[in-house]
Amino acid sequence: MLIVAGLIVLVPLSAILIWAITPIWCSIAEAENDAISIRHLQKLTAEKPVYRAELTRAEASLANAGVLYSDSSPELASAQLQNTLQGLVAQAGGQIQSSAIGTPQTAYGLEVLSVTVSLSLPLGQLAGFLTSIDAQKPYLVVQGIDVRSTDYGNQTGPLNVQLQVDGFSTTE
What we know:
The protein contains 3 helices and 5 strands. The protein is α+β, with helices and mostly antiparallel strands. It has 2 domains: 1-65; 74-170, Ribosomal protein S6/Translation elongation factor EF1B (Alpha-Beta Plaits), CATH 3.30.70.
């Protein structure tokens, strides 16, 4: 009877002991994981100046290669992008109907400059115009284009083209 009574006391006592130790054991495991995470974050923080220096070198390399607008402000770079598009339209024999500079956005450490242009372009010049945008330095990206015929299918009149063109500049 004494053995049965001892087992009855020991089983709940061991259950209580396991119940009490489990949170402590989990806390130790969480603390170890937190320590690993902290060491990892400290390492990344220590490497941050190296990454910034590498990014600065890459931006300078792109600017020197002529693929980025490198004006002192996004507004001046956007105006330069707008002037570039006006020149390309005139070169293709088109006429600008309206042009608007969008708000510069920051993405991937670069300023994304946006210009929306509405223009009238001779029918056979669209492909050459788009090719000249593609070959342009600093690089330009056509984000959206809407082409409409002005003569409703007779294929003789000019095209009305609206497009959004993005260029890139280094951030300040």
